[in-house]
Structures are given as C-alpha cells and as structure tokens.
Specification:
- The chain is of the alpha+beta class.
- The chain folds into 3 domains: 273 residues, Beta-galactosidase, Chain A, domain 5 (Distorted Sandwich); 173 residues, no CATH class; 152 residues, no CATH class.
- It contains 16 helices and 27 strands.
- A 9-stranded antiparallel sheet has the order 7-8-9-10-21-17-16-12-13, with helices on one face.
- Strand 5 and strand 6 form a beta hairpin.
- Helix 11 packs antiparallel against helix 12.
- The chain is elongated.
- The N terminus is likely disordered.
C-alpha cells in the first residue's frame, strides 16, 4: 500500500493504515526546535524551554498566557529544574556535575521529544548514579511531560535517603496561592508568604503526613499534584501514580520553590537501592494564567490518564498484528450460538483472572494497596511453599510476559484498569526485574541478570527463559514507552549473538524465537527473522532425532515451543515448520491426551491451542478442532486459574481457537 504521510525528523513511530476520512491538523503554531551552542530551545505558542548541557534538566522556561508566542525577557522558571539525591556518602545533584548529553529524538509540528542523560556523581568519586530522561512538548499546550529514570550504576547497593526534582519559579505577588489535589475531594488551598511553606508526604499505603501551612485533616489523601499561583501566572506539578509508589512528597514555598520528593527521607539508614536497579517516574509540569486556576484539577487527568490512541479491535484482528484474536462484537457475530456463549464466558473469565491477581482496586487505584511500594509497585508477591525455597515473600511475577496479556486485555475490553496495570508491570519489569541495561560495563549489560524468586536477590542467570519482549513493544505503541522499545530490541540483539538456547529447558527455545520475531515485526529487519530461523532449524533437527517429539519435564514447555513455531510459520509459511508442528502435536495427542480430564496431560496442554487451530485451518482435520474445543470448554467451565504464572500461560493463546471456530461456523 502506498500512501502519503508526514514523518517527523528522527521519528521512530511505525505508521499503519487505519479507517476513517482524511483529516488534516490545523495548528495556529506548531512545536519549534532550535539548536543552540549548549543544547536546544523548544517552544510552541504558549511555552518556551531552554535545555542546556551545563544546566540539566531544564535550564529556563517562559510562558505566554495569551498564546501568541510573545515571551518576556524574565523567565517563569528562573532556576534550572534540578534532579538530585542524598545518600549516606553525600548529596548528588545535576547542578554541579559533568555536562549532560541532550539528543533530539523526534521533531515535528505536533510534538518534540528530547533525551537528557548524564551521571549523578560527587566530585572526586568514580561511582555514580545515572539519569535518563525524556522530555515531550506538544503543540498548543501549556504543559510538558518529563519521564525521569534514575539508575544505580555504582555497582553496589546504596542506601538512599532522599531523591527529588525541584526548581524555583518567578511568580509575582506578595502572597502565593498553594493548591494540592485530593483524592475524591475538592483541592486544598492555602496562602503562602515569603519563607512560609507547605508540604504533604505519603509515608505508607495508609499514612499521609501534612506539614507547614497545609492543615491535616483525617481521611484526606493527596492526588499527586500541587500548584502555586501568583497574580499573573502559576505552575503546577504532577506525579503519576503518586501514592502507590510511596514514600513520596510534594513541597512548595512562598518564595516560588517547588519540589517533588521522588523518595522522601527514610530515616538514618535510608532506602537500600540495589545495584543496577532503576526507578522511573512520570512527571507533568504545567504553566497557566491566573485566570485559569479553576482548571487546575485537570492536571490530575493530564498526569494520570494520558490519551491512548488505538484502532478498533476488529481492525487489529483483520491485520493480525497480535498473537491471537481479540474477542470483539464482530468476531462473536461470526460464531455459532453455542460458541458465542463460550467466547463471552472465556473473555469474562480472562478479565476476572487478570484483575484478581492484583486484588480489588483500592483508593481509586487499579492495584490493591497491599502491593504498593517504591520498588514493588507493578509486581505481584509470590508465596513459595516448596522444599527448595527459603520461606518468605518473593516478588517478580512478570515472567511469561504477563504485561503483554494485560495490555491485550485493555484492547479487548477497553477497561482502563488494564492499561494502568500493564504500564505499572512494564515499568517495574524494566526497572527491577531485568536490571537496567546500563548498569554494568558488559556487551549486553543487565540482560543476563534477573531477580531470583528463590532468594529475592538480583543475580546472574544461565539462560534466557525469562525473555519476552512482546509486552515491551506493545507498551511502546500504546504508551509511547521509548525505554521499552529500546530494551525490547536490545533483548533481541542479545539473542542474535548468543541465543542462550538449551533443549534441557524448552522455555529458552520459545523465548528465543518469540523475542526475535517480535523485534522483526517491530522493525522489519530481516536479521531478526534469520536468527529465529537458525534456532528453528536446530529445533527441527533435534525433533527428528526424538522421532517427532519435543520431550521435556512439563507439557506446557512443549506447548510454548509449538506456539513459537506457529508464530514463525505465520510469517514465513514454511512447509517444514508446519510439518514439525504437526509432528509435535500428533506425538503429544498420542502419548499425553487424557480423555477423562479433557486435556493434553493437564492444564499445560492449553498451550497447544494455537498449534491445534493452525493445523485445523491448514489440514481441515476434525480431530484438531475437537481436541481444541474440548480443552477450551474445560478451561471455561472447570479450571480455576489464580496464580500470575498460570494466568499468563494458560490464556497465552486460547483465543486463537476462535479462528477455527469462525471458519467452522461459516461452513455450516
């Protein structure tokens, strides 16, 4: 398909054809970016920002409340927006460090994206933390977004007492009005003079502490935004998922100083920040005229509920961009009445299983407060009771790409809770579970380290069984998560050089193939497809030696491999791959089919759903459809899936059954 389109300079977006009439953006003034001797200036008709390598993160900021792009000489942001942290060894800030690196990722009339990176170090010390930030400015808006990622690159655990982002703003007037948002209530307002101040801190899931001019009232919970207003203009700051990522704080003063405490003071010893672990926060900074102060509550929506652009589920099904179809009205309408009820029940059961993992929503948050915390937010606890595990509570439950299933559930149900859950899970996975990619000076740092569920400690792993980048890439498209995109491709690059595949654990085979295929679909680079083909050739050769079997200790691992072979076949239509899929399925049906249970050995047999569906579509043999239907009905009517690993596994490809179900309904 050939079509006209506009592409921003250095844009990394993949463009797709979507339904609808042609609409052209009509802008009074687009985003403009200019290179300077020390960085960039970026502006629209309302705000101008100066970015300097010598004054990160943002050197200065101007605001024109009239929206004409006429900025005064005196900046509204008069002191650089500074990032800093305090440890037992001293205080690290961006204001006194080596120069930052600023790169222009994307520039165009609708938005500009700039990357700001650098070290946080104390003079005379080699070890440092590292910051990696993305600043996004949009056309005709008076706010910008800032994603702040802090990484412990010292090589050892560091007790951190406090971390912050702060600046001072040139707000006119003898008194400034301070407003803080509250959950479910009208904002709280106080007046500040000179050196007077006000703050709120979230110390735990149930404890909030108010200080200074903010009066403490029982039952009030901060919504994660604060604003200062002078006689002519004001500034608002917002932190996404403020309370769930406690301890957090917001401080303002009558002198115009505003401070976001990313990590509040944590006693004499501080919060232990493990080596290589990162922490990502999404901030929003908004400039506004004094007459617009009534619109301040919108800052909560801008911060926590950014718009997500996607197409209808029917189009995603038609294009086949996802691993399995979404259960939408168009698909349901094409099914027989009996299958319709099965599809609707399975869709609802999947929805309930995913939501139940994170507990009932609490305090307006999709994740229950039991799972909140600075490093834990976005993950799930796992209770080990097996003899080889040390007793205690462990985390890291994002294996088998649970975030991907959460985002697919959002596309299937349009329930915003899944978007919140998926984003939190992806962020945690990148920050903690995979260990940030720049943590160590290795060819592919971070990617062979994982948080061990047995000990809860970050350590080296022998293979890549935990690799899964489809969720990272889907998060990139839905959430504009450039960090996830880069990590997903880095994972695939690692597999191209060192596959980490071992037939003693077939999870490594599945992870290697699917990771490469996801990167190929995202970039179109054939080297990923060729590398996947090399692994697949090894699998087929090994399978021939096993007389068609894919032997392993658990049947779900064989299902994982057949699922990855199905994904490869859909891209290449290689008949040898189809023959391998059929041989593996036939062997499993002959040796492991349990007629009484209605499953291929056990619930792990559900992983064969995509392979059974493909074989029915390609060969027309009824046995594949009948086995598939029986297993799906067992899942729908009998199985209770409650653990995170099981939900991610057993629902991995079950909806692909309805491809064959739709074809069968048409034949009737």
């Amino acid at each position: 398909i050939t079509f006209l389109g506009t592409i921003n300079r250095r844009d990394s977006v993949v463009y797709r054809v979507v339904p609808g009439d042609e609409k052209r953006a009509s802008l009074r003034a687009g985003v403009r970016v200019e290179k300077t001797s020390t960085g960039y200036t970026v502006e629209n008709n309302l705000i101008r920002l100066e970015l300097s390598t010598t004054q990160p993160l943002v050197a200065k900021g101007w605001f024109d409340p009239n929206g004409k792009g006429s900025f005064s000489d005196a900046p509204l942001m008069s002191v650089p927006l500074e990032l800093g942290l305090k440890t037992t060894n001293g205080e690290y800030t961006t204001g006194r460090l080596p120069e930052a690196r600023i790169t222009l990722e994307e520039a165009g009339p609708l938005r500009a994206v700039l990357r700001i990176t650098g070290p946080l170090s104390i003079p005379g010390r080699d070890a440092a933390f590292t910051y990696d930030c993305r600043l996004v400015m949009y056309a005709e808006t008076s706010y910008f977004r800032l994603v702040v990622r802090l990484i412990n690159t010292t090589g050892q655990p560091v007790p951190v007492k406090e971390a912050w982002v702060r600046s001072t703003f040139n707000l006119k007037g003898e008194r400034l009005e301070a407003v803080v948002g509250l959950e479910g209530k009208s904002p709280k307002t106080v007046t500040l003079r000179g050196d007077s101040w006000a703050e709120v801190q979230v110390e735990s899931a149930t404890r909030n502490r108010w200080g200074g001019a903010f009066p403490a009232t029982l039952g009030e919970a901060p919504a994660g935004w604060v604003a200062l207003t002078g006689t002519e203009s004001g500034v608002g700051l917002g932190v996404k998922d403020f309370r769930p990522q406690y301890p957090k704080g917001l401080q303002v003063s009558g002198a115009g100083e505003m401070k976001i405490q990313l990590l509040t003071t944590a006693g004499a010893t501080g919060q232990v920040w493990a080596a290589g672990v990162a922490k990502t926060h999404h901030l929003t900074l908004s400039f506004y005229g004094a007459r617009d102060r009534e619109r301040l509550p919108e800052l909560a929506a801008i911060t926590n509920k950014p718009p997500v652009a996607t197409v209808a589920a029917a189009w995603l099904n038609q294009l086949g961009v996802l691993a399995q179809p979404l259960i939408d009205q168009e698909l349901i309408a094409a099914l027989d009445p009996e299958l319709k009820s099965t599809a609707l029940l399975l869709k609802e059961k999947n929805r309930s299983a995913l939501l139940n993992l994170f507990g009932p929503s609490s305090d307006g948050q999709a994740i229950n407060a039991e799972y909140w915390g600075f490093f834990n937010y976005g993950d799930l606890p796992v209770a080990f009771t097996v003899p080889w595990a040390q007793p205690g509570q462990y985390w890291n439950n994002n294996a088998y790409d649970l975030p991907y299933h959460l985002l697919c559930a959002y596309l299937q149900t349009e329930d915003p809770a899944f978007l919140a859950l998926g984003e939190a899970a992806l962020t945690h996975w990148q920050d903690v579970d995979l260990v940030n990619p720049i943590a160590k000076p290795r060819p592919f740092p971070g990617l062979d380290h994982l948080k061990d569920p047995r000990s809860g400690e970050v350590g080296a792993v022998d293979d890549f069984r935990h690799y899964a980048n489809a969720g990272l890439l889907l998060g990139y498209y839905l959430l504009d998560d450039q960090f996830g995109y880069e990590l997903a491709l880095r994972m695939a690059d690692r597999v191209t050089l060192q596959a980490g595949v071992t037939f003693t654990d077939l999870r490594t085979v599945s992870a290697g193939i699917t990771t490469l295929l996801a990167a190929y679909q995202a970039t179109g680079e054939k080297r990923y497809l060729e590398s996947a083909g090399e692994i697949l050739s090894l699998v087929l050769s090994w399978q021939q030696q096993q007389e068609g079997a894919l032997p392993t200790d658990f049947i779900y691992k064989t299902g994982l491999v057949t699922d990855s072979l199905v994904a490869y076949y859909r891209l290449t239509r290689d008949p040898k791959v189809l023959a391998g899929i059929q041989a593996a399925v036939d062997y499993s049906l002959e040796h492991f089919w349990d007629e009484e249970a209605g499953l291929i050995q056990n619930a792990g047999g559900l992983l064969f759903t995509s392979a059974l569906d493909l074989l029915y579509l390609e060969t027309g043999e009824e046995k594949y459809y009948c086995v598939n239907e029986r297993q799906i009905r067992v899942l729908t009517d009998e199985l209770a899936v409650q653990e995170g690993k099981d939900v991610a596994l057993y629902y991995r490809n079950v909806f692909s059954f309805f491809n064959g179900g739709r074809l069968r309904s048409k034949k009737k």
